[in-house]
Specification:
Layout: E1 4-5, H1 6-12, E2 23-24, E3 28-29, E4 40-42, H2 55-60, E5 65-68, E6 77-80, H3 84-101, E7 105-110, H4 115-127, E8 132-133, H5 144-149, E9 158-162, H6 170-177, E10 182-185, H7 193-196, H8 199-206, H9 208-211, E11 218-222, H10 226-229, E12 238-243, E13 253-262, E14 267-276, E15 280-289, H11 291-306, H12 311-320, E16 330-333, E17 339-342, H13 349-360, E18 369-373, H14 383-396, E19 399-403, H15 408-417, E20 422-424, H16 428-436, E21 444-448, H17 456-464
Parallel strand pairs: 3-4, 4-5, 5-6, 7-9, 7-10, 8-9, 10-11, 11-12, 12-13, 17-21, 18-19, 18-21, 19-20
Antiparallel strand pairs: 1-2, 13-14, 14-15, 16-17
Helix pairs in contact: 1-3, 4-11, 4-12, 11-12, 13-14, 14-15, 16-17
Length: 474
């Protein structure tokens, strides 16, 4: 945020009035180790630690104020609120409202998969047109969204918010903090199915984004997903649609990919086409692997067009865009020729299918395909069946499977049903040992599971060729 007086910060955060003209900002942090001179520290309660215990440490690093629920002896201004998390949200809401009144354009993205990759692409597209703030990593919850919003400065032109949901009302709450003018819905899949109970419940929650849009805003919807396209009736905003299958049938702005074709690493080139509110036909060549990245690029392009950016500028930015978040289809070619694909950040049935299909198409003459697969979390009562289907899919695509985690036996059962080769291992160190044994220069290994399994350790060890590296942290 731009620098303000402590008095102004207290008012925005809903804190008890405090009479101080001392400057505060620009940084707002929840980790005392990240405090900088002038910073505002928010003392959040935690499961194992209490932020109030770190007010003195934040002050030592230069913080001048803290949003907190009780007074301490720390030498900084105490901005007292009833709830520190709500104080963080209120501060962000106030800062965004002031910036929006001066021309800030807020864009938000949601979906069951692809949110982070799409916001990375969109952030780079918008940055080509003006100063842009977008989330670092997957800052998509009630803490990450306001923290991202509080990074905007005096000259910020665009703010991108990634919005996740674990229940009804979550996205509506986030939109109350950062009211979007352009909202992008990517897809409705099976991520967090255990929490929502049904795909229809997921669609209901994701659609809260388009319900929050103003009449002069834009709802950017994936025309290839019927549940997403069905959200058009839930918004008063203008409708923009995108599709991998050709020109969408509906939408004031319609965007699609023509003549798409991959290289040997499944990096796609295509012609970005637009019709309706904008007419365009420009070439794009993506740096990321997988046909699903074309869909992500179309979503980012449609949002960019809705924001008024020229198609040529969007195409150039997409063609130069690189991965900004780790462990998402991260390609690591080894010196011996083996290719390791680290897609270990997270997993659900839809993203597993996309990753395995993409990597299967990278198969090289004479080489093997090896998949190190772990649990997909939060799938609810369908979890065992989904993992069996995963094993069957992997084997059917020609992968030798190394399975670990609570559902490893289910993955293995599916792979064996498809006449595949599979080994169940006890931990990450064993996964490295098995997957890394006798690798040949033409082999391709993909590593994927939900974040809770921390299989980035496995991917890093395989990429370095150190088969026993994971043993120290498994």
């Amino acid at each position: 945020m731009r620098e303000r007086t402590i008095r102004e910060v207290a008012a925005l955060a809903g804190a008890a009035p405090i009479d101080s003209d001392r400057p505060a900002g620009p940084d707002v942090v929840i980790d005392s180790r990240l405090a900088t001179p002038g910073a505002v520290f928010v003392a959040l309660p935690g499961e194992h630690v209490d932020g109030h215990d770190y007010l003195a440490a934040a002050a030592e690093r230069g913080a001048v104020a803290a949003v907190c629920t009780r007074a301490t002896d720390a030498p900084l201004a105490h901005l007292l609120v009833d709830d520190a998390e709500r104080g963080l949200s209120d501060l962000a809401r106030g800062v965004v409202a002031q910036a929006a009144a001066s021309g800030l354009v807020c864009l938000a993205i949601t979906g069951s998969s692809g949110k982070t990759s799409t916001k990375d692409l969109l952030g780079q597209v918008l940055a080509a047109a003006g100063p842009t703030v977008s989330p670092e990593g997957s800052f998509n919850n009630e803490i990450g969204v306001p923290l991202t919003a509080l990074r905007i400065g005096e000259d910020t032109r665009y703010l991108v918010s990634e919005m996740g949901a674990r229940g009804d009302g979550h996205i509506a709450w986030l939109c109350g903090i950062v009211p979007p003018r352009i909202g992008v819905v990517l897809n409705v899949g099976h991520a967090h199915l255990g929490e929502f109970g049904s795909v229809a419940g997921i669609a209901r929650a994701k659609g809260e984004l388009v319900e929050a849009l103003p009449a002069d805003g834009w709802a950017v919807l994936n025309a290839d997903d019927p549940l997403v396209l069905g959200m058009a009736s839930r918004t008063v905003a203008r409708l923009a649609t995108f599709s991998l299958a050709g020109e969408p049938a509906t939408g004031e702005l319609r965007v699609w990919a023509a003549d798409s074709a991959p290289d040997d690493l499944q990096r796609y080139a295509f012609t970005l086409r637009a019709a309706g509110a904008v007419e365009a036909s420009v070439p794009v060549r993506l740096q990321g692997s997988g046909r699903h990245q074309v869909a992500n690029a179309l979503a980012a392009a449609t949002a960019g067009l809705a924001a008024g950016l020229p198609a040529a500028l969007i195409a150039e930015a997409l063609s130069g865009a690189t991965a900004r978040s780790r462990w998402r289809m991260q390609l690591s070619p080894r010196q011996d020729g083996v290719l390791i694909v680290n897609d270990s950040y997270n997993a659900n049935p839809d993203s597993m299918r996309a990753a395995l299909t993409t990597v299967a198409a990278m198969r090289r003459p004479g080489g093997r395909l090896i998949a190190v697969l772990g649990d997909m979390l939060e799938l609810g009562p369908d979890a065992a069946d989904e993992h069996r289907r995963l094993g069957e899919l992997a084997a059917g695509l020609g992968f030798e499977v190394v399975a670990l985690g609570e559902f490893a036996d289910d993955i293995a059962a599916g792979a064996r049903a498809a006449s595949g080769t599979v080994q169940v291992v006890a931990d990450r160190a064993a996964a490295v040992a098995v997957a890394g044994a006798d690798l040949q220069p033409s082999d391709v290994v993909v590593v994927k599971a939900s974040r809770g399994l921390a299989l980035d350790v496995v991917a890093d060890a395989l990429a370095s060729g150190a088969q026993h590296e994971a043993g120290r942290t498994a």
